[in-house]
């Protein structure tokens, strides 16, 4: 059998494989089509036919002397035969044609595609030549080992010495691992290991397959070891003696994935040159060995056999016509979505296409995106980010549009139109505001498209050339290489950049200066002459013999073409353009909801640059809202949003009065609301508009209380806008980074520009309307703070009397501070609320946008360590401080709470010679006694206080009288039980595994391992269930509470906990965790009370109270936004002073039916002088609900009497709890239930 392989014009991934086999009585011509459906991005309902004829010596088509079975005549000379994947024509030997000519006809989606060979030529099969080079039929494998003709099975030694040596070494290694020495058991799952011992390796793998056409067989053996994986391949293929046989292979991450070059080439192999395949010669047509390092071995090897017969070549596949595949790993069942990143598979597909495909174009890119939109499952956020990244980078010309791939203009036009329709449906059905925002960014990079003009592009340029006598191929005429090359591009790679090329050509026709052409193309499309030059080899041939200079040639000045080219420009805009405001207003005719809306659209266009058009744009978008599922209406809506932003950016926000600024921002917010459809944003806007245009909360506009209320509304809006912008920037940058990384890997044929992709996420996020809102807030919030009687600084911790150190500007607090940098005044960009403050930092100053709650964990730590912690709403003050980076300053806090600074002496604040100074506080953690029992009920907390942490102990010490407050029924798993569980035979070797992971520094893996692999003894499970039932808090049946308990134990290895222990000098084995279990309280409000206010200038008897809607997680974790914060004194006649109103966008709520919470209670927190708040986790058995809070109707904000009564009630509670602990000031956490009952969840000494 002799073979020949053809490629298709513009379809780089598709191929046609033709083979000829000769018997004593017949000649069989077999055809195999591969990759057509994927290359054209067609569905399953595809029909393929060969349109063929016999070819005479003079090149004329003629009918066959004998019609093969399955073929039919369609005209006097041509025939057709169905060939969806494979087909065969069998001719009597005496009537076999010398040559066959054919094209492939594809039927799909109501369209026909005529596929030809490179350069648009017909395929020609020289049947006679292939028949002469084909060997006679071979004997079946194993039937004697020799074939007919000059083919024979190559001789080889019976024993393959290298294989036997490798197998012997493997056997000896296995015996060593199976030796009787005792090894500890391990539950660590190590990649590539098939047994529990880390030194083991997978076993030997063997396989084999028959070749197509009964041509022979191939066998392989995989021998893995600790250092390398060896693949021994042996072929049994009858071939002529002078033939060579090679393994043509590609590496795969998993079977079926894209071919890649090996990370480390196997010795003796040669890259094929396409960036994907490698070749290994089978010595004497018999054997070859592939060897890869174990650490970088591929997941699989895919290959075909390539036989070079001298006069012909042959590609041999499996009997089913597919590639051979040798799997080298057992990890392929791992799903991409197991780690939560449901966009990885889509990302890999895009990365491969953009950086590895040797044939790729904008058309295939659009098809791939369209396929994502039309699949049954909706897009996820990560997948939406990939769509936006690819389309926007392509639109910026940061990705290649033409890479040896062609297509017909009608296909491109149809795809663009279909893509817009699919996108509008996807945006309309988007499941989240983030996905909606991402896809609206993608809409801006998508041409409108019009399928009706696709063929007109191809015919239009031909008509112009023929009308004006311009040379076309072999047709004589005026020779203009530019027009000829552009004509070829329009036939095979027509795209939106042809609009700019046409505009540039018109500019040249007007002036006669070729520089005008290239200048306009650069201005309109960002295409350089080098870009135009590259187009010659990107999907169409250079028929002009211009040296493959593409469109980088000076055109002949033919001014007579001007009028026709003007009309042709309109056609190009009709098909590829249509995204400017006027064109979209026109395109939507007949799609507007009413005539008034249509008139308004054109009014907006004519007034588009007026600052007074903002209101009209918002109203027009509101009217179009119901029609956004239509492609043209969606594109118009996006264009209107862009125009809104363009006009708003021209406004001078800095010089607006405060009322004008509020009105301006209100207009922008209405526009943003239409784009996002975000429930949380809607709730924030309801509060904003109630305060601006409604009853104003019963306050006078710009009064102190109104300013505080409006400040809370703006704070929430700002948090939501920042969250959207940060999320989108991060998602897009992650995609761009993956593209950059893919471009650096072996086999990449395209490397994206790092300058463009390096800041892609941030630059794209700047196109969001949220950026304008942020600019308005920067001007408005300081005015609101001044109106509320607040200065630029907000103090959380006042630090010591004298704060001096070196100013260091930083993005976030470091885990540790170098000794030479202390003492340090840290000016940070952000703070989460969970951080530890490294030793040596004496002050932390940050922007007001990232201010933390007074009672957040980081605030408590700051007061513990006597660190000044404050936020500032004046950017100029922070900029001035950052400008003093590296300088030594002394900070002072005025009675009014303002911070000032002066130069500090060189040694001021440094440790003294005696060693005193800013040394880390060292904790003396006392080792607890062995656990007295597996679980302790609350009634036994006090008598076993050495076995419990402060949370449990202080709850046990509370003795409320009837009607005062409640303490939840509780039980605690005491100190030492985790260590006892690790000693249980169920967990043999687990402690050593944990230690191994800790030494590796992979703390996330430690936590996962503890939760997933530690097994609880049955007696402990029974004790937890029994004791909780005894105290009146039974666990629901079949409740999976075990993971919550183990999750708390695992939190010993959170990053902040490990860092804190290191800083405070606590040895790892000294820290133990008890676990407090109790029912989760269904709180309407959560509170924290400092019975003695830590605020600067507070009265001695004042308490500081903070309240949030829902559970306390959002309060103590410092989630974005503010709690209601108020100072309350002992006198009923003095109104509580509200410092801030709540602005946290989301509240946390107990799940329906309730659940239990397992709370950390370590021996390294709630100590004298050290709270250690939030270092270890508390975990609910059933996840809590997170939902937006509607503050516009919240009693806590607008019912003054209710708020005053509740705050007074909480003040009295604080005094009761304080009295319970002999008057010692307390830090109290608790809940307000729906009926108003108060529950104390925790009390500890205030620090």
Secondary-structure blueprint of this entry?
Layout: E1 2-8, E2 11-22, E3 26-34, H1 36-40, E4 47-55, E5 61-62, E6 71-73, E7 79-82, E8 86-92, E9 100-108, E10 111-115, E11 123-125, H2 127-133, H3 161-177, E12 205-210, E13 217-224, E14 228-236, E15 244-252, E16 270-271, E17 278-281, E18 287-293, E19 300-308, E20 313-316, E21 324-327, H4 344-355, E22 360-361, H5 362-374, H6 381-395, E23 402-403, H7 409-428, H8 433-443, H9 454-467, H10 481-492, H11 497-511, H12 514-525, H13 529-534, H14 562-576, H15 581-587, H16 595-606, H17 614-624, H18 631-649, H19 658-676, H20 679-693, H21 704-744, H22 754-757, H23 760-765, H24 770-787, E24 793-798, E25 803-810, E26 824-828, E27 841-847, H25 857-864, E28 868-872, H26 875-883, E29 888-893, E30 899-903, E31 936-937, H27 950-957, E32 971-973, H28 977-983, H29 990-1000, H30 1003-1013, H31 1018-1030, H32 1042-1050, H33 1055-1064, E33 1073-1079, E34 1085-1090, E35 1103-1109, H34 1113-1116, E36 1124-1128, E37 1137-1140, E38 1146-1149, E39 1156-1162, E40 1178-1180, E41 1185-1188, H35 1195-1198, H36 1200-1220, E42 1226-1232, E43 1238-1245
Parallel strand pairs: 25-26, 26-27, 27-28
Antiparallel strand pairs: 1-2, 2-3, 3-8, 4-5, 4-7, 4-9, 6-7, 9-10, 9-11, 12-13, 13-14, 14-18, 15-17, 15-19, 16-17, 19-20, 19-21, 22-23, 24-28, 25-29, 29-30, 31-32, 32-33, 33-39, 34-35, 34-42, 35-36, 36-37, 38-41, 39-40, 42-43
Helix pairs in contact: 4-6, 4-21, 5-6, 5-7, 6-8, 6-21, 7-8, 7-9, 7-18, 9-10, 9-14, 11-12, 11-14, 15-18, 16-17, 17-18, 17-19, 18-19, 19-20, 19-24, 20-21, 21-24, 29-30, 30-32
